[in-house]
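Exam prep: given the inputs below (a chain plus adenosine-5'-diphosphate), describe the expected output before reading on.
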Amino acid sequence: MSGRGQIFVLSGPPGAGKSSVAARVRRDLPELAYSVSLSTRQPRPGEQDGVDYYFVSRPEFERRIEAGEIAEHVEIFGNLYGTSQKVLDRALDQGQDLFLDTDVNGAEALRQRFADGVFIFLLPPSRRVLEERLRGRNTEDEAQVRDRLERVRYELSKAEHYTHLVVNDDLDRAVAEVEAIIVASRRRTERHRKLLAEFQAS
Ligand code: ADP
Ligand code: 5GP
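Solution:
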């Protein structure tokens, strides 16, 4: 596995703050590749195609699944979301670490393939705060907010499978914690590689 990049997966219930944290990590750790997912949902105000998601139609998404171009995918809230196989292969084959934002099922599929991955679960400070943030985001109507709130229990039931859990109370603190996990893990991996290389060269 030496020379191969590592994956860092961020999950958490809808409204936990994954997109907010991911945007900051992308900015602060530019050497980390970011997996832009494909999605059939409509862009939210301010979201850009190719930056936040590759926004594609359902037939196009299904064609890509058939063609083997999607590494993992789920259907949530009436839309398809998935990781591009090419994005995953390109980063890891080049030895580049890759950051992904997926739901818990996507994370499970990735865990099966990448046992050395780092899986971070983002937890809001309370149910009340989560609901306030979801409503405050103002990007979904009432029915969509309720769909997302119903999903919270399921996502939380998978939290114990994650290597790390970060509470997103204060955003700056949560970002610092996620970045510290990433940096520490990369140092550890680098150290292991160096020690192995030294041994092999001896
Ligand atoms: P997710 O991607 O997990 O669904 P978002 O990143 O869209 O969640 O965050 C949901 C809402 O909560 C957004 O309006 C975001 O600006 C806000 N938010 C995220 N983290 C915090 C925080 N620590 N404190 C206050 N508001 C936050
Ligand atoms: P949103 O519509 O709020 O951007 O995302 C909805 C859910 O889709 C979130 O739980 C997010 O983590 C998940 N998601 C986004 N991209 C992917 C992906 O590529 N794979 C999977 N499995 N889930 C994703």
